[in-house]
Specification:
The chain has about 140 residues and is mostly helical. The chain has a domain of about 70 residues. Helix 1 packs antiparallel against helix 4, helix 1 packs antiparallel against helix 8 and helix 7 packs across helix 8. The longest helix is centred in the first third of the chain and has 20 residues.
Amino acid sequence: MISTKAAAICAYVSGILLLIAGTTGSIGIVGTIIQYALDNLSGVSADFLSLVLHMLNIVADLGGISVIIGGTLILKQRKWIGKFVIGLGAGMGLFGFMLTIVSALLHGWTGAITFLFMMTQSIGWIGVIFAIVATVIAR
C-alpha cells in the first residue's frame, strides 16, 4: 500500500511540474502501430481504430493532467491503466529516457554534461523523472 501512495504522490508532483512546464505527451509506438493498421484496414474496423487513435492523442495532449489522472487511478488500485495514462501524459517511458541518456553518453562527455545540465534546468524533465519513478514503484 505504501508503494501505491508513494507512486500517486510522485505522479501528482510530476503532473504539476509538467503543467508548469507546458509539457505534453506522445502516443509513440502505440500510435505508429494503430496508424499502420489504419493504412491496411477499411470500414468499421478502420473507423474504430481511428477513434482509438484520436482518444489516445487527446489523453497524451493533456500532459500533466493525464499524469495526475494516472496517479489517481494507481491510488484507486487501477495500476495498469494508471501507468499507461502516466506514460501517455509524460510522453516518455523508462526505455525512452534510458535511450536518451545512452545517446548522450555515446556523444562523449560533452554530450553527457550538456544532457545533465539541460535535465537539471528543465522542470519538464524533472516532471518526466517523477513520472517514471511513479510507474516503477507502483506495484
